[in-house]
Amino acid sequence: MVTRHISDDGVSLLRQQAAGASVEAAVQRCRESATDVVDARDDAWPVVFANDAAAPAALFVRGDLSVLSARRVGIVGTRNATSAGRATARELGHDLADAGVTVVSGLARGIDGAAHEGVKASLANGADSADGSDSASGRAAAVVGSGLDVPYPLRHRDLWEWVGRHGLLMSEHPPGVTPEPWHFPLRNRIIAALSEVLVVVESRERGGSLITANLALDMGIEVMVVPGSPHNRSSAGTNQLLFEGAAVVRSADDVLTHLGLDHSRQHAVHDARPVPQGVQAAVLATCEQQPSTLDMIVGDVGCSVAEAALAAARLEQSGWLIEAAGWFEPTSSRLSRS
Question: Three-state DSSP class for 202?
Answer without folding.
Answer: coil
